[in-house]
UniProtKB/TrEMBL annotation:
<dbReference type="InterPro" id="IPR036259">
    <property type="entry name" value="MFS_trans_sf"/>
</dbReference>
<dbReference type="GO" id="GO:0055056">
    <property type="term" value="F:D-glucose transmembrane transporter activity"/>
</dbReference>
<feature type="transmembrane region" description="Helical">
    <location>
        <begin position="39"/>
        <end position="60"/>
    </location>
</feature>
<dbReference type="GO" id="GO:0046323">
    <property type="term" value="P:D-glucose import"/>
</dbReference>
<dbReference type="GO" id="GO:0070837">
    <property type="term" value="P:dehydroascorbic acid transport"/>
</dbReference>
<keyword id="KW-1133">Transmembrane helix</keyword>
<protein>
    <submittedName>
        <fullName>GTR5 protein</fullName>
    </submittedName>
</protein>
<dbReference type="InterPro" id="IPR020846">
    <property type="entry name" value="MFS_dom"/>
</dbReference>
<keyword id="KW-0812">Transmembrane</keyword>
<dbReference type="GO" id="GO:0005886">
    <property type="term" value="C:plasma membrane"/>
</dbReference>
<dbReference type="Pfam" id="PF00083">
    <property type="entry name" value="Sugar_tr"/>
</dbReference>
<dbReference type="InterPro" id="IPR045263">
    <property type="entry name" value="GLUT"/>
</dbReference>
<feature type="domain" description="Major facilitator superfamily (MFS) profile">
    <location>
        <begin position="1"/>
        <end position="232"/>
    </location>
</feature>
<dbReference type="InterPro" id="IPR005828">
    <property type="entry name" value="MFS_sugar_transport-like"/>
</dbReference>
<keyword id="KW-0472">Membrane</keyword>
<feature type="transmembrane region" description="Helical">
    <location>
        <begin position="6"/>
        <end position="27"/>
    </location>
</feature>
Length: 232
């Protein structure tokens, strides 16, 4: 029935955001416990599995597989790790540039996906499973290359207390040289965090001092979604 089809399409689109909500909610606990590199590797595995499930949905004649794959993609993509890891492994003079590239490539990826989804390219009746599975390609590339990179130096020093591991990671990333100033900066940040209370989402919503900042962020985020940019 047409109403059921509309409902299924709506769920297929929105379940990505539900997965993203779960992924971003648990990101702080996971990154502190396991580190950003390990979490990124797990994210890549999750994305490859999701891509495989969606790519096989037509052969299996199962729309449920698309729902499951979209949910897993949301969990994987919306854990905010990529820009954190890139920012932490970058030298100070390149950190701002490195952080801004995450947003650039996010937008570029969306544009490439929308162009590839045209009927003349991969959006045809025969090729759309390939389009659904294409999100696994960048995940596979990162899964193969990321093991050659070290763990984030701030994570090693601040959460693991591994000063030697931190120095080794810095030398591997930035080359040989005197990096004591960067290590001192990380130690200062660690000392600051010890005296700073980390608020949960519920505590943040109850905190009067942050009420107007929270209103502004919510309104800005909501209006970006409602301004028609997705339709454009």
């Amino acid at each position: 029935h047409q109403d059921n089809l509309l409902f299924l399409w709506s769920i297929t689109v929105s379940i990505f955001g539900i997965g993203g909500l779960l992924g971003s909610s648990g990101s702080r606990y996971l990154t502190v416990k396991y580190g950003k590199k390990k979490c990124l590797l797990c994210n890549n595995l999750l994305m490859i599995v999701a891509a495989s499930i969606m790519g096989c949905s037509k052969i299996a004649q199962s729309f449920e597989m698309i729902l499951i794959g979209r949910f897993m993609c949301g969990v994987s993509l919306c854990v905010p790790l990529q820009h954190q890891y890139v920012g932490e492994i970058s030298p100070k003079k390149l950190r701002g540039f490195a952080n801004s590239t995450s947003s650039f490539f996010w937008s570029l990826g969306k544009a490439v996906g929308q162009i590839s989804g045209q009927r003349e390219l991969l959006g045809s009746q025969s090729l759309w499973p390939m389009l659904m599975a294409s999100c696994g390609l960048p995940a596979l590339i990162q899964l193969v290359t990321l093991p050659f990179f070290p763990e984030s130096p701030p994570y090693l020093l601040m959460h693991k207390g591994d000063q030697e591991g931190c120095k080794k990671a810095i030398r591997q990333l930035w080359g040989e040289g005197h990096h004591q100033a960067e290590i001192d900066d990380i130690m200062k940040e660690k000392a600051t965090m010890k005296n700073t209370k980390i608020l949960s989402v519920l505590e943040l919503m109850k905190e009067q001092a942050f009420r107007w900042q929270l209103y502004i962020i919510v309104i800005l985020t909501a209006t970006v979604q409602l301004c028609g940019i997705n339709a454009v």
